[in-house]
Amino acid sequence: MKMSVLLILPLITGCAKEIPIQTEFVLGTVCTVQLYHYGSAKIYNAVFSRVREIENRMSVVIPDTDIARINRNAGIEPVPVHQEVITLLERSRYYAELSGGAFDPTVGPLVKLWDITSEHPRLPSAEAIQEALALIDWRDVIINREAETVFLRRIGMALDLGAIAKGYAADEAIKIIKQAGIPRGIIDFGGNIFAYGEKASPKSPWRIGVQHPLGGRGSYIGILEVSNKSVVTSGVYERYAEIDGVRYHHILSTADGYPVHNGLLSVTIIADASVDADALSTAVFALGYEQGKALVESLGTADAVFIFADTAIRFSQGAEALFKETSASRFPEK
Ligand code: ADP
Ligand code: MG
After folding, report:
1. 121-178 pLDDT, tens per residue?
2. Where would you tag: which of 74, 150, 198, 275 has the fewest CB atoms within 10 A of its CB?
3. Is any atom of ligand 1 closer than 6 Å to the C-beta of 103?
């Protein structure tokens, strides 16, 4: 009798097909969705196919996306695009205007010029940087919502939604999870985190680690305790190239054309929507501490944690209450 119970149990649990976590490479990065005992092949498939659909519209790497076609037709003609591309471009325009162009979705020519993810990155010449800078201006993106077309006014212009698309995808993923009646979960799209719902038992906020900018992956400078929030970090360590022994990271100044250099190592934004946290993390990082903090506090809907080159930590008004410093905070191992 006892024997048969033991034999049956694994069969029952085997049938349930509970998948606590699923990781896939999409949006040019490692994307993880963690739904604990609510996880099933069906829900993960629904989430990841939606994320791939977004990638197939927004990527500049994949050849025939809406964004790639807009770029190919820069200075030539308006391009019909899916309505969600219009939505995300309007959101991008909002943050471009709000940040005075520090965040700019037309940063494409500069991203291509630096090409820091290439195998042999080179330091661009000053002339090439000036040429690229002259092509960057979010006001030259002509969005026609009725006709559902987008036009870049000048030849050579190029959109790059790398600073906002992962956040948008995270929100869309959460929508699907919510519609399925799932009450909680964590998603992490290459550092774009959405902490959905709250921890089950005891009911408590999620604890989201803020990476130590000098400590490498998995070393935390502190923990943010949040429920139902997105947490997104832009940092110098996320993607960079080493050229002649100097590190050049991937957030570019639309003012001088070089990687932003303002004493910050990272900015973490906490907001209700990941699209906002993503755009703001880049915008606030590019603006620097003073202006970035002022921007976040003027919005009243987001908070920011700033980490400086000496690993000093500063906060926008509401952020300090959410942040718990870890004991190894200032002295990461290694
Ligand atoms: P990550 O991609 O590491 O999450 P960000 O959200 O800060 O980091 O996005 C950085 C990416 O955004 C760059 O790789 C590039 O594609 C693009 N980008 C770089 N500088 C800017 C800028 N000033 N404004 C808008 N997008 C930018
Ligand atoms: Mg961003």
Report:
1. 889 999 999 999 999 999 999 999 999 999 999 999 999 999 999 999 999 999 999 9
2. 198
3. yes
State whether the beta carbon of 254 lies less than 6 angstroms from ligand 1: yes
Domain ranges of the chain: 16-55+164-325, 60-152
DSSP letter string, 262-328: SSEEEEEEEESSHHHHHHHHHHHHHH-HHHHHHHHHHHSSEEEEEEETT--EEE-TTTGGGEEE-TT
Residues with Cβ < 8 Å from 46, sequence gap 6 or more?
Answer: 176, 180
User: Among 282, 287, 291, which is best to mutate for testing ligand 1, by the most ligand atoms less than 8 A from CB?
Assistant: 282
Nearest one of 205, 184, 209 to 36, comparing CA atoms: 184
Atom of ligand 1 nearest to the CA of 278: 6
Q: Is the CB of 329 under 6 A from ligand 1?
A: no
Give the Å distance between the CA of 250 and the centre of ligand 1.
6
For the Cβ of 281 lying below 6 angstroms from any atom of ligand 1, the answer is yes
| 231-264 residue pLDDT tens | 999 999 888 898 888 889 999 999 999 999 999 9
- Using CA atoms, how far apart are residues 140 and 74, in angstroms rounded to an integer? 10
Kindly state the tokens that stand for 256. 């001088």
Q: What per-residue confidence (pLDDT) applies to 120?
A: 84
Predicted TM-score (pTM) of the model is 0.93
Atom of ligand 1 lying closest to residue 285 CA: 7
64 contacts 136 by C-beta, under 8 angstroms: no
> Does the CB atom of residue 158 touch ligand 1 within 6 A?
no
Mutate which of 107, 159, 238, 284 to test ligand 1's pocket (most atoms within 8 Å of Cβ)? 107
Q: What is the model's pLDDT at position 201?
A: 86
What is the fold of 16-55+164-325?
T-fold (3.10.520)
Q: Which ligand is nearest to the CA of 99?
A: 1
